[in-house]
């Protein structure tokens, strides 16, 4: 996969998402989805990783579409109705639009960040976007602790089973273990904040960075690709008469 600055990936995905949420039609979403495939190929996204994450996103998009199909606002011909469930011509069109829209928005947001490390993203946000160093470093430290939650959960389960308090009442066990994990995470976060403060993090408005974050032609091309995809999606939707601005609903 091509090494591209995470900030460029973030901006490209944000541009596509920001435009696609303005309308609920299927034409703009389908156009964006079709144009995103060449972008992924140009960036040399690993096929296996793309298929695995694409499958999860497809399931989520299908569930969203199902909800709109069954409970969407009835419009046009009604095909089937039972209690609160109404399947109509309008709900079918809305379900198709939402399915494509979730795919078109979520795929760039997930696939483009397959190889992004939190440190690289923090370097880019601090050096290129010029976000406050205190916020960037603090967020980076928090992101690094997220990976420990699963390990802490497993260790808490082992400890509770060793004491014989995890053999019955699964719901109560889950609630108690979740509360213990929350307390443990708060304590660890407080200790980390104290340690960072003691080492001078956030003591000065500006700071130096160990790894320079570069932004060149490849990053500009990726952002331009996101702008082209968004513009093409809006153009095709308006030209075909499918544009359905959310503010007009």
Percent strand: under 5%
Structural class: mainly alpha
**Uncertain stretches of 5 or more adjacent residues:** none
What is the alpha-carbon Rg in Å? 23 Å
Shape: flat
Total of DSSP H or I helical runs spanning 4+ residues: 8
- Strands, total number: 2
Between the first and last Cα atoms, what is the distance in angstroms?
41 Å
How many distinct domains?
2
For the largest beta-sheet, the strand count, sense and barrel status come to: 2 strands, antiparallel
Rounded mean pLDDT score: 84
The string of secondary-structure elements, in order, is HHHEEHHHHH
Read across the widest sheet, the strand sequence of neighbours is: 1-2
Helix content: 55-70%
Structural summary, described in words:
It is a single chain. This protein has 249 residues and is mostly helical. The protein has 2 domains: 6-116 and 213-248, no CATH class; 129-198, no CATH class. The chain contains 8 helices and 2 strands; from the N terminus they run αααββααααα. Strands 1-2 form a two-stranded antiparallel sheet. 25% of the residues are buried. The mean pLDDT is 84. Its main location: membrane. It comes from Mycolicibacterium gilvum (strain DSM 45189 / LMG 24558 / Spyr1) (Mycobacterium gilvum). InterPro entries: ABC/ECF_trnsptr_transmembrane (IPR003339), ECF_transporter_component (IPR051611). The chain crosses the membrane at residues 51-71, 92-111, 220-243. It is found in: Membrane.
